[in-house]
Every structure is written in structure tokens, then in C-alpha cells.
Amino acid sequence: MASFHYLLAAAVLAVAVFGGQSAMCPTYGVNESLFFYDMPLSCTASFDCWTEFCYAVNGTLTPTCTPFGNVSVATIQQAAARRVTCALSAALASVSSTDATCKKWGQSLTALYAAYYADQTSTNVTDACTADMCTLLTAGNATLASQVNFTSVCAINVTAVGSPCTYSCPDSTCAANLGSCGCTANAVVGTVDTNANLNVNSLLLSSTLQVVASASYGVLSGTCSNFSFTSSLKYVWSVTNSSGAVVLTANGSTLNVPANTLQAGNYTATVTATGLLSTQVSTKAVTLTYIVLDPVVTLSAPEKATTVRSYTLTAAVANPVSASSYNWSCVSQTVNASCPALNISTSALLFVSAGSAAGTFVYTYTYTTSKNSVSASVTVVVVSTDIPVVTFTAGKLSGGIGGASQYSVFYKTQVIAVSGFTVAFGSAYTRSWKVNGVSVNGTADSLTVNASSLSATSLSAVTSGDYVFNTITLTVTSSLNANDYVFNTITLTVTSSLNANVSASANVSVIVLDAFTSTLTVSKLGDNAATSAASLTDSLSFTATLTPALTTSNAPFGGALTTAIVVYQPGATTATSLYTTASGSAQVGVAPIIVNGTAAGTTVTFGVQVTLAGVVVASANSTFIVTLANLTAAASAVAASLDVISDPNEAVAALGNIGGCGCPWQHRRTAGLRLWLSLNACDCWRDMLTTTIVTGVQLSATQALSVATNVAALLSLSANKTDASAQVVNVMFVVMTGTSFNLDVASAVGGTIGQMDAQSGGAVATQLALVICAQVLVGQTASLDLGVAGSMTAASSTGAALAGLAVSDAASGVTVTLPSTFLLELSGLSADATYGAVTLALAVSPFSADNGTPIVGGVVQQSITSGTNTVAVTGLTTAIVIRMPAGSSGTSCVYRNETTNEWLTDGVEAVVVGGVVECHTLHLTAFATGSATAVALSVLVVALAVMLQLIAV
Questions:
Q1: Residue 719 DSSP class
Q2: For residues 630 and 649, what is the distance between their CA atoms, to the nearest angstrom?
Q3: Is 507 in contact with 469 (CB distance < 8 Å)?
Q4: The pLDDT value given to residue 719
Q5: Is 864 exposed, middle or buried (0-12, 13-18, 19+ CB in 10 A)?
Q6: Are strands 503-513 and 456-457 parallel, antiparallel or unpaired?
Q7: Which 8-state DSSP code applies to residue 81?
Q8: Is the peptide bond before 548 cis (omega within 30 degrees of 0)?
Q9: Dihedral sign computed on CA atoms, order 437, 441, 447, 453
């Protein structure tokens, strides 16, 4: 190494001495001496070119190798010609270099070579060669240099330097060496297309924008024109404001603009697609217009209240602005009855204390901005006797497609969860639900109802604002005064058996969007008459129709609109993503590798899924035959392409093809097994994922499903499961944090956890426990199979229903029961808010004992969640009961202190009931704060959750 550094130092000195062109040599119109002075010696390949030339001319190890030794003209000419060929090879290979200087030099020289390669008439590269070689040889021996035939030295051979790609693709030869392949110089980046999930001409500040760019990349005709270079494209986004200042940048084909990132105004989003050579570039600019909608106020209050009890009014503001103020006011409609004091209030709530006057009062909430003021009013009748007070929290119901609208909007196929009602009443009462006069079963103060049973609003009616409202009403009434019942579309009747004289109610309205119908046609691109297409070689065209027509320009309520093409692998019950790009009204994608594919072909089911605000509103399937003539060649091409993929969308597509080549069903095929072993022998697929599927990347639901499914398959036969699992933990976190995360994706993640080692699988399972409840409707549960790793059951509940809630995980036999006093003992919980209760049973502990040794056996994790945060549970006086699986050994329960990594017993005791151990705990955590996603994986802290481990003592 010392001699190498010495040579570099000498090189710098020599450049200072010998810089400049010889007066005898020609010049050319390029400011770089690419074959001489500017050829970087820090690059291994170009360094070898330099040393080989110096030795050939018997010179010194300086940049000019001067002075030359006693050599002939023929020797000098031959050495110079070899140096030119060597320099071109080094430049073409520099595409894979990590040294910025090497890459810059390589791109500059390759650009000259590319123009020459294309038509053999461009003289830039030969002019540069002649000038540089003349200067080099003259510095070494001016007398002999005058006798050299520089035309011969610089006779660039387009087939000697790089492969001309004369073979048929897919083939590993071209895919593995694109940077040094001669046909790369002929490749062209096509026009960039963009597809946005929202109308870019009227974007709301609160909306999340996603714009996907795509472009073709390949040789237009002739040699290697059937090979796609598209996976090697690199995309860069830049968003500028009206003044030209850059406000946002992004790498990758997808531009994500989170909600409330930009202010109102016009912006230009420019995407640049660059090929393997810096000269292969295509750009497109998209104008983004962000607008501000006027705020809309929604006010909710009990229709009837009592002087005996306090009551609350809640306000919700759609399209809020940062610079604003609010005001609560009251007007009495009853003589000699004064409005109550309004001093206990916030921007979202007004609290009226018990003891206020009886009468009729009109409350008004006013929201003021610099632009205008908006308000909403509600009338409350207050009586002096004790009656039930029914309140519904203002705001939209969760899970809808209403976007920025103030309305609760759902699609025809959705299930609506109605919650947020609060009943304050001192007497016992019973409940009964009715939907359109028909009795249905509800759970306490919540209900789930199929949107298909409600009146729908057509797309055209939505566009014109002619909505059809469905009113959901909770009525609390005495059993002896039935005439006060209010039956709207959905009615919950609460009847008191002790007070027969009173009633009260609260309402919420729902809009249901009518159904769409769709069709899908699949054909081979460029040959509509063809009945089959070859994997990886041919492209498929997908044409979908939607009735009524739905685009981003007429998407109701500003909902994000996306269209995904999916493929059902033989034997699979769920669809996985197929990467496509827009081509006119169609979507185009390369025919995928099919599990157990043959040369004769396999009939494959493809599908289209149209989502609005994350909800699938239309889908259709169609079949097409896909053939696989040469599994080995196709598999090799897939494996070789992994090194050049830098875009998340391309990475998901490649992962799907890897799964098709090497999934477990394929192992009986020799070629598939060889590919599988080769992929798992190297880290290529994991390296590709960990560098492309990174924090901040937003995957669609079908993409997330594909990643989870294929990672599970690849992990199943990994030679080093511990290392492989650790590498993909962050990838699985990205899968779970996307806006399109749903229960199907959660189930696939469960399958992936089952293939991971205990430590990494535990980290992923803990994060899954944080996000799963948001996908479960209020009053319902969902269970996930984690394979050999364990199981999980999540329940979604109102705060009031947490009291006495029991969550049973049937697969493990674990049952967790919260005390009936849970809501009273734990401050900060709201009776009408929505919470999650998650029971996670892991068959093997991902944690170690405080002495560093692994805990033997399994663990049970119980957590209470609010959104994607964990609720700290501590200071209980009545225990949470965790019934461990039958057959658990030992007589002691311990929990893990996540700060000290100690296993402790304070506040936890073991009770044997009927031969089964129960862990009774007064806390779930009093330890770490933060989120599991923000904790270093090597630490494996599980934020705000308790680990219960049954051990023998």
C-alpha cells in the first residue's frame, strides 16, 4: 500500500510538470483529457491500464511514463493501441464503481464512445484519442511519436471493447454486464409517463399525493432490441415552488408528498430518468396545484340533557388552518333560564357542569380564520329530572372513503363500524338495535352494519352534491314511554327499567357510494391475436373498463385513486402485485415467471383492482397463457438483474419473479433448485430489498402482500436464517407502515414471522401488534397465524367496552381478561374513543435473561393500543388476568423491564386455577417510552408492552 500511495503522489507532481498539449499534437473540443491526464489512477481498472503501458514502453511510473526506454515505433504503437482499448473497457465498467471520480470519468468517456458506437461516424471519441495519445507519446519520445500511425492507434473497434449482445434475451450475459456491454450505448430512455393518485390540478393540503413515473429503456431496433434495460433506470424527483426554489426531492420512480407538507400554491414536480450512461436521460415536469378549502364545522350534542348530570358538546373542523381561533356561545330560548357558564372548553369540546338551569338552549361554535368565519349550532333541551344523556363525538366515522370531506362516506361493499356514543344514566337499562326497522345485534354502544343494506348515492349525484344521507340514531328511552322512540335508518334503543318517564337521543349521518362494475382484457403487447406470452420476454397489455367511469378528476370527496394489476400464482389464494406502467389507456407489464411454468404454458389468472381512498371499489379477473421455455436462462437473468435495481417498484417485481423461479413448489425441478440455492448462497435478493424498500417508501397493498409472501418463501430455505431474518426486519416494518396496510397484508406478515428466527421475528411481531388493531372493526376481533413462531389475536373496542373485555387467542390457548374497573382505574382513557387489545403468544422467547442467556420457552405479550401507539398501563388495583396455555410448567410469572432487561415479579403473581396457571398483573408497563419503530433493532426494546414469561422456580 505504501508504494501505491507513493505512485499517486508522484502522479500529482508529474501532472503539474507535464500538463498541457504538445504544440505538435491536434486539439479537440472537449475540456477533459479522458485518455491521458484525466484518467483517474484511483480506479483499479484505469490504474492497470497505466501500469501496463508504462511497463510496455519501458518507462517510469509517472503519469506520462517518461522517459520511454529503448523501444521501437512498433512497440510504442502497439502499447498505445492496447491502452486505448483498456481505457474504454475501464470506462464502460465504471458504471458499477462506488468511486465518484471513477464514475464521472467513465461516464464522460462512455458518452463519447456511445455516439461513435451508434453510427461509427461521430469523430469525438477518435479525435480525443488522437490528441491524448499524441501528447502522451510525444512526452515520452518525441522522435518516435512523429512516426506513429495515430489513425491505427485510435481505430476504435465497437465489437472488441464490449459485447454486441448478439444473443436472444433473457440471458444472464447481458443482464450481468450491462455496463460493459456494447449494446448499452445504443439504448434509449423513452418518454417519461406519470400517473398520480389524485387530481394534481386541485390538491388539498391534507391529502397524501403519490405520483409514479415510468419509462421504457432499451435498444429501439436491431441487435438486443428484445432486451429490456428498464430495471436499470434511476429516477430522481425535484419539486420547486413558483420562485424556482427546491422544496422537496426524492429518489425512485414514486414521488410521495405527505399530507400538510406543502402550502397552497403552484409547484413543478420534475422527474429525471437516467440510464446506465449519463447521456441517456429523459425528463418530465408535472404541475401541482394545492388549494385551500373553506373550513366546515360539525357540532354534536345530546338532544336532551338533565340538570342532574354534566354533559358535553364536541366540535369537529374539516379543512382546518393553522392560524385560527374559536368561540363557544349560547342563547337561551326559555324565559328566566340563563345559559350555563362556558368557561370549561377547548377547541373541540365544551363541558357543561351539573346544576345548570333547565330550559332550551342553542349552542353555537364559531371557527374564525383570516379569510372568513364558519359556525354550526345545535339545540339542547335540559330537564330538571334525571334522564339518560346520550352523546356522540363529532367527527367522521373511521374507515370511510370521505377523504377531506366532513361527511362519513363508505363504499357499497364496506362494513361500517358505528361507535363513539356515550350514555350517562344512573339506572339500569337495556339496548336494542334496529336497521330500517329490522332488529339486529349490537355490542353495547357500538354496531357494525353492511353498507350494502343502506341507501346508496350514485357517482353522478356525488358530483352534483345531491347526497343521500343514512341517519344512525342512538335513543335512550324509558320502557313505559315508548312513543318517544326515534326510528331512523339505524336505531339503538336503550330502555331503562327503573325510570319510565324520560328519553334522549343522538344522531350521526352516513353516505354510501353506489357500486362500480369493471372488466379486464389481457393480450400480448404488439400481437392481439396471440394466445400466449413468454415469461420475462414478452409484455402483456391490460385494459380495464370501469362503469361508471372513474378518474382522478371526478373521484368523489378527493379520494386517492389507484389501479393495480395483480397475478394469482397457481395454488395461491391471494393475489400478488405485477409491476406495470401506463401506456395510453392500458397498463403494460412484463409477463411474470409462473410457479411450475412449462414451455407448453400455464393458464394464469390476472386481475385488476381499483381502490378509492384505500378501499377496493372494483375488481375483475381474466386469464392468459404464460409459457416458460428456459427456466435456467430466465432464472439467471432475474438473479443477475438484482445488482442494478435501485427502484422499489422494480424491486418488488424482481422479488416476485424470484419467488416464481425458486418457490418451494419448484424444488423438484433441478433448474429451480439450483437457482434457489444460488440465491440463498449470496445476499443478492436481501441486498436489493434492504437498499430499495427503506423507511419512507410507500407500498400498495398488493405490493406489500407480494413482499411479505415472497420474503417468507425465500427465508424458508435460507442457509443462515439468523442473518437473513435480521436483514429483512426493516423491510417488514416498511410493509406494515404503509397507508394501504390491511388484514390480508397482516396475515402475510404473520407467515413471514413464522419463517424468521426468534429474535427478529419477535421484533416484527411486536410492531405488528401495534398496527393490527387499526384494521379491526370496533366490537370485532382478528386472529393471525404466525406459523411455528406463535399466534396473535387483536380486538377493537370502545373505551367503555374495555371494562371486563376478554381476548382469547384460540391457537395458543391464552386468554386475557381486563378487570371491570379498568376504565375507572386507568386515567386518560375515554369511554367513547376506540382502543385495541392485542394478545401475542410467541412459542420461543426473542429475549434473553438478565445474565444474557436465552429464556427457554415462550412469552405472552399483552398491550393496549390507541391508534398505532401503546397505552401505558400501570397502577391498577384490580389485576389483569392472563390465563397461560394448558400444560405450562412452573409456578411463577415474571415480566420484562425493557429498560434494564431484567425479569421481575413485582405487581405480578401466579395463580393456579383448575390446573392452569394464571398470571395476575397490576400493570402492563411502567417502563420505556417511544415507538418500537424508532428503537434500534439490535437493542430489541419492545416499547410500552409487558412480556410475561412462565418459568419454573
A1: S
A2: 25
A3: no
A4: 73
A5: buried
A6: parallel
A7: H
A8: yes
A9: negative
Binned at pLDDT 50, 70 and 90, residue 494 comes out as very low
DSSP reduced 3-state for 185: helix
Buried-state track 385-408, b at ≥16 Cβ within 10 A, e below 16: ebbbbbbbbbbbbebbbbbbbbbb
Backbone φ, ψ for residue 498 (5° rounding) = -110, -20
DSSP character string of 471-503? EEEEEEEETT-GGG----SEEEEEEESS--S-E
Roughly how many angstroms between the first and final C-alpha of the chain, as a whole number?
A: 60
pLDDT of residue 528: 93
Q: Are 76 and 145 in contact (CB under 8 A)?
A: yes
What is the per-residue pLDDT for 91? 80
Q: Are 116 and 88 in contact (CB under 8 A)?
A: no
- Closest among 663, 660, 641, 664 to 651, alpha carbons compared: 641
CB atoms within 10 A of CB 160: 11
Q: For residue 674, what is the enclosing H or E element?
A: helix 670-681
- Under 8 Å between Cβ of 591 and 626: yes
pLDDT tens profile 818-842:
999 998 888 888 877 889 999 998 8
When the pLDDT of each residue in the chain is averaged and rounded to a whole number, the result is 78
Residues 6+ apart with CB under 8 A from 913: 883
Is the pLDDT reported for residue 618 higher than 90?
yes
C-alpha cell at 661: 423461479
Burial class (CB in 10 A: 0-12, 13-18, 19+), 300: buried
Three cell numbers at 911?
Answer: 395463580
Cell of 642: 438484482
Model confidence pLDDT, tens digit, residues 259-316: 889 999 999 999 999 987 778 899 999 999 998 888 888 888 888 888 988 888 888 8
Smallest Cα–Cα separation from 392: which of 298, 493, 301?
A: 301
pLDDT of residue 713: 81
Length of the chain: 953
pLDDT at 184: 75
Side-by-side strand order, sheet with 254-257: 193-196, 209-214, 254-257
CB 533 within 8 A of CB 626: yes
Phi, psi of 179 (to 5 degrees): -65, -30
Instruction: Report yes or no: 663 and 635 within 8 Å, Cβ to Cβ.
Output: no
Residue 881's pLDDT band (boundaries 50, 70, 90)?
very high
pLDDT of residue 663: 41
| CA angle, residues 737, 741, 744, in degrees to nearest 5 | 135
Task: State CA 342 to chain mean position distance.
Answer: 45
Is residue 713 within a helix (H) or strand (E), and if so which, with residue range? helix 701-716
Peptide bond into 295 cis (omega under 30): no
Q: Is 703 left (phi over 0), alpha (psi -120 to 50) or beta?
A: alpha
**Assign residue 444 a region: left if phi > 0, alpha if psi is -120 to 50, beta otherwise?**
left
Task: Report the predicted TM-score, pTM, of the whole model to 2 decimal places.
Answer: 0.69
718 pLDDT higher than 90: no
Q: Which residue spans within 343-399 are E strands per DSSP? A: 349-352, 359-369, 373-383, 389-392
| CA 189 from centroid of its chain's CA atoms | 27
- The answer, yes or no, to whether residue 944 has pLDDT greater than 70, is no
Q: Which residues contact 343 (CB under 8 A, 6 or more apart)?
A: none
Question: What pLDDT, on a 0 to 100 scale, did the predictor assign at position 270?
Answer: 97
Give the integer Cα–Cα distance in Å for 650 and 487: 54
Phi, psi of 406 (to 5 degrees): -80, -5
**Cell numbers that stand for 842 in this block:** 410467541
User: Within 10 A of 143 (CB to CB), how many other CB atoms are there?
Assistant: 8
Q: Spell out the residues 6+ positions from residue 31 whose beta carbon is closer than 8 angstroms to its own.
A: none
Domains and CATH numbers, the chain: 2-153 (no CATH), 187-291 (2.60.40.10), 296-513 (2.60.40.10), 757-953 (2.60.220)
Task: Encode pLDDT of 741-757 as tens digits.
Answer: 889 999 999 999 999 99
DSSP lists the bridge partners of residue 251 as 236
